[in-house]
Specification:
Length: 212
Amino acid sequence: MKKLCFIFLFITITSFSQEIALVKYAGGGDWYANPTSLPNLIKYCNATIHTTLNSKPATVEPSSPNLFSYPFLHMTGHGNVIFSPNDVTNLKKYLQSGGFLHIDDNYGLNQYIRKEIKKIFPNDDLVEIPSSHAIFQKPFVFANGLPKIHEHDGKRPQAFGIFIKNRLVLLYTYECDLGDGWEDPEVNNDPIEVREKALKMGANIINYIFNN
């Protein structure tokens, strides 16, 4: 019954409000980094792939029952992350019931977030997502997979995921920094072609959520 209620809630969200949310986590990391990124992604998606996302994203804590009101959660930052036992339980239920979490390493998150993901899925490993996956294919084609937005350590960008019954439910983007590419142009002074790549990849993520 809980799963049916959750599915009905997602149908309602998809049909009417389509609100997405930023995760406010504990541990001291700057969960609030990139304040203009989600609003810009929302604007881009509404204009190019015809979503009807609310212009202002919500903010939600991992243990909140409100988590189940959002089909898409975004999480970013540079520092420490700690998921409490209640956070872990709630996030796992959310993802098992059809929710989606995108974690974007804003440089410095990697060493912390991998341990916290393992708390949620102790029996599953993050796997690298191949460029053939649907998330890289539509509506915009990324033949080489995740685009490189910021250099960081000069490593190649990688997209990792957790799958439940062949459905991607958790996306972790590393050495890429999509969120920086979504920010207002003057924040990072990225060339327009770099910002466009970041926004197109973000649109692919949103498209995947509502169409798979």
